[in-house]
From TrEMBL:
The chain crosses the membrane at residues 21-43, 49-66, 86-104, 110-127, 148-168, 174-194, 215-234, 240-264, 276-304. This is Uncharacterized protein. Keywords: Membrane, Transmembrane, Transmembrane helix. It comes from Hymenobacter jeongseonensis.
Length: 319
């Protein structure tokens, strides 16, 4: 018990240190938006007798994906044989607010399933280290789209259960939309890791051409993976027009996530914060009169900042 308490204290100090690195100004902007966005999504899901069951699966999948990418798993395995029990308690604490939200709507089953599934994320094996090319399985995605190649090897399995859930509840428009939202979160994790500087330099393109190529690849594969969800949505009450509108919004958010990655390259913390802020604003503020102006400012700012940052990284020739 003392070892568990020491571990939780260590994790608390680490989170506080990371928040300090972000800065209080960014936190003052980010936290309210994220709380509103997450709260709004949970309220919408908890109030639906069908979509509420996607919450425990989505939370467990996100925790499992984050768990696989933890850099301290090998250290914990060597220094503490019982580390998986510590991780299970930690993940249970992260999921507790979600379960309480479900309980507020009297979704007893979904709340219990959340508390049951999330500790199981600690049993998921860590992501394998780089293997030789001969031992790697061939990827459906181009090697140039390295975010998709590595991301789908780690979390691509989430796509099929999400699609199965959307097909199962195809008569409810919220089901495929919620599945697309979860899939966007998976892609958010894929684009939250900055590539090494050598990969940018070897691209040998100007900043504008490089950014355009990243957007074309990301949005192209994004549309390819989102198309089945949009097809399910089109066959339901939303119709073709509703599916097209959702697809445009979804691709727009993915494009902003890609832009945010290079706007603050190579600072992983800052780019992840910006990506979360963009997605949070998009979820929290639709219908607000300032939303169009805020979205336009975000798009213009990210395009300018990403090109400016890439020019600084690629050198004087990266115009």
């Amino acid at each position: 018990m003392q070892a568990l308490q020491a571990y939780l204290r260590l994790r608390r100090h680490l989170v506080i240190r990371q928040l300090r690195e972000v800065g209080w100004v960014r936190l003052a902007l980010l936290l309210p938006v994220l709380l509103v966005a997450v709260g709004r999504a949970l309220v919408m899901a908890a109030s639906s007798p069908v979509v509420q069951w996607a919450v425990p699966v989505g939370v467990a999948a996100l925790l499992a994906a984050a768990h696989r990418q933890r850099a301290d798993l090998r250290f914990l395995a060597i220094s503490a044989p019982a580390f998986r029990r510590w991780l299970a308690v930690e993940y249970l604490l992260w999921a507790l607010p979600v379960a309480l939200m479900l309980l507020a709507f009297k979704d007893w089953g979904a709340a219990g399933l959340t508390l049951l599934l999330t500790p199981l994320a600690a049993a998921v094996p860590a992501m394998r280290e780089a293997r030789s090319t001969r031992m790697r399985s061939r990827s459906f995605f181009r090697s140039e789209a390295f975010e998709w190649v590595s991301g789908m090897r780690g979390a691509g399995w989430v796509w099929l259960p999400l699609l199965a859930g959307a097909v199962w509840q195809h008569t409810a428009p919220l089901a495929p939309i919620a599945a697309l939202a979860c899939w966007l979160l998976v892609l958010l994790a894929c684009y939250g890791v900055p590539e090494p500087l050598t990969m940018l330099v070897l691209a040998a393109r100007t900043a504008r051409r490089f950014l355009l190529r990243r957007l074309l690849l990301g949005l192209g594969f994004g549309l390819l993976t989102a198309a089945p969800f949009l097809g399910v949505l089109a066959t339901g009450p939303a119709g073709v027009a509703g599916a097209v509108a959702v697809g445009v919004v979804w691709l727009g958010l993915l494009g902003l996530v890609i832009l945010a990655k290079y706007a603050f390259y190579p600072n992983a913390m800052q780019l992840r914060i910006t990506q979360a802020l963009v997605v949070g604003i998009a979820v929290a503020l639709p219908g607000n009169p300032v939303y169009p102006a805020l979205l336009l400012a975000a798009v213009g700012g990210l395009i300018w900042q990403s090109q400016r940052r890439l020019r600084a990284v690629l050198g004087p020739d990266g115009r």
